[in-house]
């Protein structure tokens, strides 16, 4: 049975959007609230732009924090959010790296497994009617994906190889007049790793996208020309 939209409304009677924000804030993950709000608002514009029912895509879900911000936009606009992750963590999440968290290691396998956390977050938010999880390798899914995207949020692996594979695989799926968002764009290398900034630079240099909003390390772009090689 689909989750009732009221599942996450709190007993104190706060609105559904407020209840979802509280859950997003409480979820484990890597999304500051101001950037999450900007993400939600950009995705809400995208959801509203397609009356036939928008298709929103998330690359890199981890435990579902950004999924709730985006899922709130999907629910509010009648869109569907597809949320991709293999749930084994990026290089930077592995033991010994900055973004490791022992709590998400699956004891029997010894591997990171964030899928149970993601499910708890999404089900706990009552977003099962608006969010579809896709468990697997992002570029592999991109190669088989056929539906034009109204909104694509790239926040997967931040090493050069995974970041570029996501950009090459997903940005061509963004429809004209629709949006591409990239997280962890740090113009100053002292603030964070380069690959997401380089994707953003490449998107701007391509002439296919224009800037359409930013907050912290979140950049929102709008496609104004067809991808190279596609007419
Ligand atoms: N958006 C999340 C943070 C994502 S962290 C939040 O709000 O907290 C980056 C995620 O990308 C990790 O969960 C990792 O498992 C995933 N990832 C990295 N490479 C991937 C790939 N090739 N395919 C699918 N997921 C990938
Ligand atoms: Mg991020």
Identify the notable features of this structure and list them briefly:
7 helices, 9 strands, alpha/beta, 231 residues, Rossmann fold, 21% strand, disordered N terminus, binds magnesium ion
Entry summary:
Helix content is 35%, strand content 21%.
Q: What does the overall shape look like?
A: globular
- CATH architecture, by name, is 3-Layer(aba) Sandwich
Strand order of the largest sheet: 5-2-1-6-7-9-8
Unreliable stretches covering 5 or more consecutive residues? 1-6
State the share of residues found in helices, binned by percent: 25-40%
Let me know the largest β-sheet. Answer: 7 strands, mixed
The proportion of residues in beta strands is 15-25%
Attached small molecules: S-adenosyl-L-homocysteine, magnesium ion
Query: Which structural class is indicated by helix and strand composition?
Result: alpha/beta
SSE blueprint and pairings:
Elements: H1 16-26, H2 33-49, E1 55-59, H3 65-77, E2 80-85, E3 105-106, E4 111-112, H4 115-124, E5 131-135, H5 138-144, E6 149-154, H6 160-170, E7 174-182, H7 195-205, E8 209-215, E9 218-223
Parallel strand pairs: 1-2, 1-6, 2-5, 6-7
Antiparallel strand pairs: 3-4, 7-9, 8-9
Helix pairs in contact: 1-3, 2-3, 5-6
């Amino acid at each position: 049975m689909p989750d009732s939209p009221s599942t996450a409304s709190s007993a104190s009677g706060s609105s559904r959007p407020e209840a979802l924000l509280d859950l997003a804030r409480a979820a484990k993950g890597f999304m500051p609230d101001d950037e999450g709000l900007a993400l939600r608002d950009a995705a809400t514009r995208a959801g509203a732009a397609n009356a036939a029912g928008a298709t929103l895509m998330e690359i890199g879900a981890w435990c579902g924090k950004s999924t709730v911000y985006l899922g709130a936009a999907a629910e509010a606009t009648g869109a569907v959010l597809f949320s991709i992750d293999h749930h084994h963590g990026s290089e930077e999440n592995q033991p010994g790296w900055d973004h490791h968290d022992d709590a998400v290691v699956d004891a029997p396998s010894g591997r990171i497994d964030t899928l149970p956390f993601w499910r708890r977050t999404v089900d706990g938010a009552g977003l099962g009617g608006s969010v579809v999880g896709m468990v697997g390798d992002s570029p592999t899914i991109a190669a088989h994906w056929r539906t034009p995207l109204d909104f694509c949020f790239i926040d997967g692996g931040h090493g050069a190889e995974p970041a570029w594979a996501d950009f090459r695989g997903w940005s061509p799926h963004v429809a004209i007049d629709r949006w591409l968002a990239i997280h962890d764009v740090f113009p100053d290398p002292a603030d964070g790793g380069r690959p997401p900034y380089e994707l953003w630079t490449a998107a701007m240099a391509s002439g296919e996208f224009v800037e359409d909003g930013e907050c912290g390390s979140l950049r929102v772009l709008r496609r104004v020309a067809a991808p190279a090689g596609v007419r």
